[in-house]
Amino acid sequence: VGGNRLSVTPEQLARHNAPDDCWMCLKGTVYNVTPYMQYHPGGSDELMRGAGQDALDLFNEVHRWVNIESMLSKCLVGRMVGSPARSK
Ligand code: HEM
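That is the input. Now the predicted structure with protoporphyrin IX containing FE docked in place:
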């Protein structure tokens, strides 16, 4: 994680929980998935289940093999600090 990346708190993460402003924590890294919302093959409703939370459990239930780091490299916001809510 580079020098100008944010340290994101659980409270900050939780505020970005709308389809037009959606952040997600995966493996301790926070992504702004808003630009990906309309392209997610599982649909925006499915993607929104992880909005503003740690979505890794949900993610792994569906597609453990999908390469998060490469797909979302341009959506990187920063590093998670603390323990966010986990999506179920
Ligand atoms: C499908 C990416 C988050 C639910 C897919 C596929 C990709 C993808 C590439 C197609 C997989 C394939 O056909 O082999 C991502 C990325 C995510 C993300 C990059 C993180 C930002 C989520 C979340 C859920 C979810 C949080 C919530 C449950 C699904 C479902 C499908 C799917 C249900 C299957 C669609 C179908 O085959 O009908 N996703 N996903 N995804 N995703 Fe995600």
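Residues 24, 33, 40-42, 46-47, 49-50, 55, 58-59, 62-63, 66, 68, 71-72 surround protoporphyrin IX containing FE (CB under 6 Å).
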